[in-house]
Structure formats: C-alpha cells, structure tokens
Amino acid sequence: MKTYIVQRLAIALLTLLGMSIVIFALLRLAPGDIVDILFSTAGYISDSEKQAIMKELGIDRPYVVQYLDWLHQIVTGDLGKSYRYDLPAWEVIRPLVPVTLELAALSMIFAVLMGVPTGVVSAVRQDTALDYALRVFSLAGLSMPAFWLGMVIILGLVSWFAWIPPITYVSPAKDLKLHAIQFLLPALAVGYRSSALIMRITRSSLLEVMREDYIRTAWAKGQTGRIVIWRHALKNALLPVVTVIGIEFAFLIGGLVVTETVFNLPGVARFLVQAILWRDYPVVQNLVMFTAIVVILSNLIVDMLYGVLDPRVRYGG
Amino acid sequence: MSRSRALRLSTMLGFVVVALTLVMPVQGQTPKSGGTLNIMLREDLSQGFAIHESSTISTVFPAAPCFNNLVQFDPAKPIESTDTIVGDLAEKWSWQDNYRNLVFFLRKNVKWHDGQPFTSKDVKFTFDLLREGPDAPAKLRINPRKDWYSNVEAVEAPDAFTVVFRLKRPQPSLLSMLASGYTPIYAAHIPPANYRTSCIGTGPYKVKEWRKGEYLDYVKNPDYFIKGRPYLDALHYVVIVERGTRTAALQAGQLDVAFPGETTKAAAEQLKKAVPQLVITPVGTAVTDNIIMNGKKPPFDSMKVRLAVSYAIDRRGLIQAVHQGAAVLGAAMAPKPYGVWGMSEKDLLTLPGYGKPADMKDKARKLLAEAGITAQHPLKVEMVTRAIPLYVDMASFVINELKQVGIEASLKQIETAQWHAVATRGEYQIGANLTGLGVDDPDANLYENYACGSPRNYSFYCDEHVMKMIDQQSQELDPKRRLGIVVAIQKKLEADAARPMLDHRIDYFTVWPHVKNLVPHHNIYNFARMQDVWSDK
Amino acid sequence: MAVRPATIAVPARAHPTFAPWTAVARFVRKKPLGAAGGALMLLMLVTALFADILQTHDPIATNAAYTLGRPNLEHLLGTDHLGRDIYSRIVHGARVSLVVGVASTLLGSVLGGIVGLLSGYVGGKTDLITQRVLDILQGLPLLVLALVMSAALGPSVQNVVIAISIPIVPRAARVIRASVLSIREMQYIEAARSLGVQHLRIAFRHILPNTIGPFIVLCTAQLGSAILVEATLSYLGLGVPEPYPSWGRMLSVSAAEYAQKAPHLVLFPGLAISLAVFASNLLGDALRDTLDPRLRGS
Q: Looking at this predicted complex, what is its ipTM?
C-alpha cells in the first residue's frame, strides 16, 4: 500500500510540474500583457514608459528566468504580487477562497442529493414513464448553459417578485439567514447541472449491479426487495459514483465561473476570469495551479478510496 | 376671543400654512445628515485611486470622493463652462498679465486624511508631477494628461497658501482643465504609487475598505473643511460585472445610484415602468461615437474615400438604431445644451452626411466611383473595434451602411489589451471608436485628437492650417471670437473627414428618489465628489 | 476509469455486415428518446445547411424602426435591440454552433483517438509518458483552458475551433486507449503478431475498426459539450466574432439588459442552445446503449 501511495504522489507531482509549464506558456501566448492593459485604462500608449514598467514588474526578463523564478516562489511559499493590484497575490485571493469552496461544496451536496435518489428511482422503475421523465429532466440540466440558467433565474425573480438575492456578499457570521438565501440559488443552479451526470451513473451502475447473480440469489433467499437493493446493490454501485463525483469537481469550475459572475458572488472563479483578461500572470498561474492541485488531490483520494473499496486495485497498480 | 372668531383665525392660519408649503420651493427641504448610499460600479477600480495614472471613468467615479481639486465645476449645475467654475481648495483665483499667469489663493485649515496640513507645497508637487517638470520630486508611472500642461512654464508656491502658474503663452483653457474630475490634488508627502492601493486625500470621504473586485467603502470625513459636509455617513460602491444583474439590483433597490453613462434609454424605460418613482435624468456624457480611418495607408489616404464614408453613414439612423434615440448630432465639440463650443443645428446640416440619407448615399457612391470603386468593384476593408458590445453594435450598424454604397467591411474585434496599440501604431484600416473627454474644452479635445503627431490622433490627420487655428483659438481671449474659430475648426475637420463624428451619447442617469442633490453633469467624469448629496431615508 | 477495462464483444470478422435502414428502424423502435434526439440533430443540420433559404430577413440587417419588437407574422421570433430579426439569426446561429461544434469535436476526437490508439497499442514507457501529458491537459479546467486559448489565439472561427478541440483530446485519448487495451490482448491479435504481421497494419486494420463504436459514442457526447463551451465563450465575448450570429453572443450583455422589456431576446437563443445540446446528449446516450451495452457504466 505504501509504495502505491508514494508512486501516485510522485506521478501527481510530475503532472503538476507539467501543468505549470503549460499554463505558464499559454498565458504568455496570449497577446498583450499587463502593461498594455494599464495603458489601455490610461487611453494611450508610450513605448518608453512601457519598458520602464516592464522592468519594474520583472516581465522583461527571458521566459525561462521568469518561469524558474515562479517555481522558486511556489516552493518558498511566496505566491507573488498581483500585477493589477500591486499587492501580494495571496492577500487578494484569500477572502475569495472560502466563498468558492462553500459554493462548490453546497453545489456538490445538492448534486448528490438530487442525483443519487433520482438515479435509484430511475433504475428501479426502468423504462417506465417516470424513468423517462426523470432522465429528460436530468438531461435538461446538463444541456442548459449555466450562464443562461442564472440569467433567467435573476430576471424571473426581479420581474415577478421585484427581489433578487443580496448582491453584496453577506458573511455567515453577520447574518446566517441572508447568507443562506444568497447561496441557495446559485448552489442549486450549479448543483442541478452536476446532478445530471451523477444521476446517470447511479442509474446505469445500479442497473448493472442489479443484474448480477448474487443480487438474484439474495432476492431468491426472500429478503424484502427494498433491503436487497439498498444493502447490496447500492454499496457496489457507489464505486463509479464516487469516481464521477471526483471528476465532476473539475467540471464544476466552469459552471462556477459564470454562476459567480451572474449572482455576483466574490469567489475565486469569477476573479480568475478577470485576472485572465487583465493578464495578471501571478494571480492566474497560482489560481490555476491551486485548482489543479485540488483536482489531482481529489483524484488521488478517489483512487485511494478505490484501493480501499476494491482490493483488486491495490496490487495491480 | 369668541369661539367663532378663534375658529376663523385658526382656519386662516391653516390656509396660510398650506399656501406657504405649496409656494415654498422644493429645494427648501432641509438636508438630513446620515445614511449610506449603495452606488453601482461596472468594474473594479483599474488603478485604485491613482486618477493621474488613468483615463477611465472606472477610476475617476469611485475615487473622486477622496479628493479635492483646486477649482471645480459647480456640482449643482448640469452644464459646465468657465462661468460655472467655483472654488474647491482654492478660495480665490485670478488671471494676470493677460492670461499668462494664474494665481490661486488657497483655503487655510484644510487637513489631509492622515492629519497633515494642506499647503501650496502639495499643489506645486502635483503639477510638477503632472507636467514632468525638470526638478519634479517624483514621477508618474503612466502620465496620460501630460500634454494638458505642456504650456506651463513653472509652478511656484511663494507662500504656504498661494500658488502661481506661469504659462509660456496665454491659455484661458487651463482653468477649465484644472476643474476637471481628472485633476485632483495629490499629497506631497505621499509617494504617488501609494494611490494605486489606498487614498490619502482632502476630500469629504475617507476610504474605509477596498475589497478588491467586490466593493469600496467610504466613511464621512469628520474634519472636512466645509462644516456640516458631507451629509452622508458612508458610501458603498458595489462592483457588478454582469449587466443584467446590475440593472436588476438597481430595480430591486439594492443599489441607489446608477453608474454614469451606463443606463440606456431602453433600460431606463424598463426601470421606470417597474419602479415609477425612480428619478431619471437624461444628460450628456462627453462621449462620442466616431470613425477613425488610417490616413497613412490606402484606401483611406484618399480624402474622397474618407468623405464617402462620412456621407454614407446615416447618423440619425444610427442614433435611433443603436441608442434608441439616446444621442444627439454633433461635430467634434458637444452641441448645446450639452456643451458651449458645439455647432448649431443649422450649421450641422451643412456638414457631409447630415442631409437626407438617400441623397447622402448617392453622394457617397459618386465619390467612390471617382475613386474607382463601384458595385462591380467593391472596396473590401477590415473594420476594427473593441470587443465590447457598446462598440460592436455601433460598428455593426456602420458596416451595414457602408455595404449599401459599395464598401464591404468585415469586423475584427480587438481585445482591450491591444486596442490602443493597434490604433496608435496605425495597424488598422478603419475603426469604430468611442472618445471620452475629461472636460468640454477645445484645447483638451483638439490638441489630443487632431494635432499633428499626437499619440491619440489615430487617423494621423495633419493639416498645418488647422494646427494654426488650434493654436490661435487656444490663445484667443475674447470668448465670442474664440467660439467662431472653434466652429470653423469643426467645420474643416468634418469637411476633411478627419475623424467623422457620428453622435454624442446621452445617458439616462438613474437614482432612487431618496437620493437628493446628486445633480448629473453633461460630462460623466465631473460630478462624483458626493459632497452635497444627502439621503431622505 | 483506470481499473475496469471495458469489454467489448469482438466480432468474428473485423468488418461486420451492416444493413443501414433496418438498423435505423430498429434503433427508432428500441430507443425512442435517442431517435427523437437524432431527429432534432437532423433538423439542426438541415437548418444550418439551408440557412440562407430558411431565413426571412438578412440576419445582420439592422432596422431602427422596429427594435425590441414582439414576435409577429413578419418577425417570427421578434427583433433584437438593433432591429435584427431573431428567427433569422437563430437559423444562421445553427450554422455557427454546428460547424464549430462538429469541427472541434472531430478535430479533438480524431487527434485524441490517434494518440490513444498509438499509446494503447505501443504501451510501455510511451504509454506512461503520454498518459501523464494527457493528465496535464485534462487537469486544467475546461473553460479556463478554452478561455486562455481563445485569448491567446484571437477571435476567429478557426481559432475558436482549435481552442475548444484541445480539451477534448485527452478525453478522447482515454476512451480509445481503454478500448484498445481490451482488444490488444485478444487471441487473434496475438495470432496475427506471431504470424509476423506488421504492428501498424494490426493497429489500423484490426484494432481501429473495433474502436469505431466507442468513438461514435464519444463524439456525440462531446458534441454537446463543445456547443456549450462555444456558447459560453461567445457569451464572454471570446467566441466567433461578428458578423456571424452566434447563439451565445446573442445572450450576452445587450440581451440581459433588455430582457424584461423583451424576454424573447433571452429565451429563444437559450432554448436553441439547450435543445441542440439536449438532442446530442439524447442521441449519444442511445447510441452508447446500442453500440456498447457494457460501456453504460463508464
């Protein structure tokens, strides 16, 4: 087991290194840099002033030097300075992280709460009208653009109720009820989309397991149908569901970006888009690495769980 | 007295009281102290409070409450001109030596937000910084308005409360430029770079907290030099990037004040329908739609082709289609009542492109035919514009107009980061552009956009005669004569199709009714101090 | 799913007999939902192909006199804030969405498929390294990757196609590789190798045809995702530029602004996107059930 973990960690580290190179290169590929944007807010451009600012920010150095400098910063725990705000990147990002994490967690919870039971019901009542209805409903969530859903919700609220959720972030410490209201709708919107995949996997996984011999045996032994399903089938069906939850987390970021923008939640995802548009390299690089680490960690944990739940894996590598 | 007499007396008194309240002007309402206003921001401050290092309303509007100018345009009057200039940090001022020297007598007992006293040293520091004087103690990283001060020979501070601007030649416009929202006074004891992250000013409000990308909080400055001001306790500027959410928040009452220049006529109608008590004021913005054409390269080095473009565009149609009527015709300077230097309606009609659309398009086709361009041999060009819907809509309309006269333009959207580089370096053929002016002044506008060699003269227009006229009007002391020269310049610019003006935008500035005394100006940059604003909640 | 290799029923011959019409009829009968999805997709294809005929107005012609107009006989779905006919724009938008969606899906899937085929077949160190590289690409959030690529390449149809296809490559490679791995160990492959048949020949003649099934499933699944990403990019202003009408761009700034006065501005383009993605998902699901019953779990 130990070698397995060490192996996976080493691979994860290499992957992260590769990702850092990719994101570093991609960003530099995008035309224009922070200095161009600064000049655009000033409404003119001056090549001599540009050189001076590039030197001040250190972006006139060769790319390799900048890359190594960045790696060095990460290793020493220094997350660099935001080009836009002239402040340490961590200081600017720190208040945003809990908002996104909370939104992501709430969304995942809604996704599981919506996806698993509908998947079970759909599997148990396979090929009935209910099954079709649930599948259509769930698929609709996957098909709607996240930003459109958010837009329609806000517009519906303001047209019919003359009310929208608070547009300034309310911390749970200040007003828990208002905070809950603020997060409820966006979490539901994002969760609805993620629930689709979870519902599908639950359904198909359960269908497959229910065909297995040992389920049929348990049925024949006379235990009541429901207990059979819940106890034996679900436990085995859960494996791929757990995998998918891990994968979905990565897809979540896309939905979070537009949802945070539409509902005006001060999260990391929304900030990331602004940082990309501003070519704020340190912020973008560090944020993307952060998401990459989260994704890889969650994959690692899922793999670990797999190793625990399915002994075949541990020794196969 | 008898009962009936007392009754009659009291009824008479009642009538008098009622009559008085009806007759008393609405302004008779006494301002209340206290309260907070929630104000819309369409994006986060781009360079913090460093107004001198930026040219965008996104910095000026939220940063203004922290500062004061030497002089300002009267906050209570929507129109801005030399007649409406009132003091801010300067109590009195006077032109001397035939508009060659400008002397300011500063207020005493003004303190910076950190307690330091305000003196003439701060004024000298600010303007030496701006004009990049030889012995300036500091330097701005970016200096977009350096050219405003190219005529300033020296700035002297003979004593703690007197400042003298010595000019190389007479320039009456200098005073107007000092009144613009773009000209606050920095503190001499604060490094200019600090203004990008925090703000030490003399203004009515102190910065409490700036949550990046989220909100900006101000609190009342208790030591403000005007007693009793500001009325409000706090200002809360909220960043909402998504346009639909912004409008919804204003409608739902979570925002009290809209962002200047952001409320279109259609949005205003929608808001009014949903919330009839909203106060909506149509105002000029000092923002124009115009066409830039690269005069250095074919095909737009030919004046015939440029004129044809100007003739082809139905400006009234554009105003209706793109702005739903929320814009007015005008040449380089804003027309009355939005500005004082514009051309009259009668004069405008003589300019190319302002007649009947069908006739104008015929004229355009004729001109193009003379240049060898016909329906059989159309001209194919690439039109650039910024990748912002505001620009794209305008460009789409123009492309459709040009199509009808034989110019086929494809649209290329340029990301913000590259726009000014593309325009300044002439890496384009034709472009749909927006220009915002910090102050309705011919010097500020004409030098910046039409002077030979000016970096923002994106069309590379260079006419010696026009340059002479620009210099002439800059030194002309008689206002009537000066207006005459400015009008003549505008006529020539349109006749040369230097940068065809399409319209001057109107904003339907919206506030909730409890917001009192926030008078929008015909210029989005100059009414953001919030000094006299109060809330009736 | 690294652990359970997908098992596929390997046909006795590499190219089974295929009677198209009976197969389609059977499909419609057994999978009505999928058939409905297929029909919708066909409708979209027809709309895209014949957009010039189906339109009622020039999609880029503005009309100052009738802005934000309600749907009526002349303008079936109303007009937008510039007076442009929404129905015609949606019809042309189908072209953009379909072209960009199909092109990027094919590009990404084919590239990824080749990588997966070779990686799975060659195995060993090459496979290990390729897998890590794919991990890297897949670890970056899809939208962020597309965003950065779009900004990097600049707005144009080709660049948007490239930007959207890149995140598809690792996903395609994964699926194809998994199917290759399962076939590789099959007896008849070993037999062919022992007979001295060249590797490349084996790869392309025997293994490739059996990956067609998962490939088709993959493509239809990714198509929906590609259309969504294109819509989101357009909405953010980074998608295909004017004057091509794009459903996503029709929903950006201006639409949200006027939505209360003219809700059809927001409803119709959004419905169009949703229907297109919905249809491709339905079709994809049904195809998956038909072509690879045991792949349902992954």
A: 0.83
